[in-house]
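Q: What does the assembled structure look like for these inputs?
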Amino acid sequence: MAGAEPTFYTAMRTKDVLEAYARWAPVYDLVFGPILKSSRKAAVAALPPDAGRVLEVGVGTGVSLPDYPRHMRVVGIDLSASMLARARARAKREGLTHVEGLIEMDASRLAFPDDSFDVAMAMYVMTVVPDPAGTMAEMRRVVRPGGRVLAVSHFASDAPARRALSSALSPLARLMGWNTTISASRLAAVPGFRLVSDRAVGIFGFHRLLEFEVVK
Ligand SMILES: C[S@@+](CC[C@H](N)C(=O)[O-])C[C@H]1O[C@@H](n2cnc3c(N)ncnc32)[C@H](O)[C@@H]1O
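A:
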């Protein structure tokens, strides 16, 4: 999608992410496992069936890793060592041999070559990362032309009143570990993508699953 780089107001900093997810890690699956399960499953179901290599950005505790079809090879990255430790333990415990690697890495500075994945998946991550535009640009770089970027999250509304409420809540949200100000429309305005679909998912349909084609 052509256009000027959108600016994102983001309350999150790397330090906030690390602190919040070190706190969440021991209880994350209990609190956010079942409640986000259906939308995560919808995101995995939206993967192109012929995808070979998938990058899961912000893989967290790896709660979705068992859901990927076994013919796909999955690499997960996350900024938080505490969350990743749980993902590694899960992969070992459940014998997830389709998981190629679980690596501590910043999504806005990916250490992978250009065009090295068929799909990048971001589940409840684009509303957490300190640099959403940089993260989108990096996912675009490492996904091959015509590949897909899938992002599911609770995105902010574009309606002015609800946007003001989101901004007002953002200091509290930062402490909790997410950003209430990232809207799907701003994400869709990042250059180099074609929005293929945008649909409501999850309990009550409050969350959105965006599917982008990478255009190069
Ligand atoms: C809300 S959790 C989502 C975890 C998992 N994807 C899920 O569906 O439950 C957000 C995750 O994004 C990670 N994260 C935030 N900023 C990141 C960044 N810049 N690079 C990599 N991971 C990041 C956090 O450490 C955390 O594990």
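Residues 51 and 118 are 6 Å apart (CA to CA).
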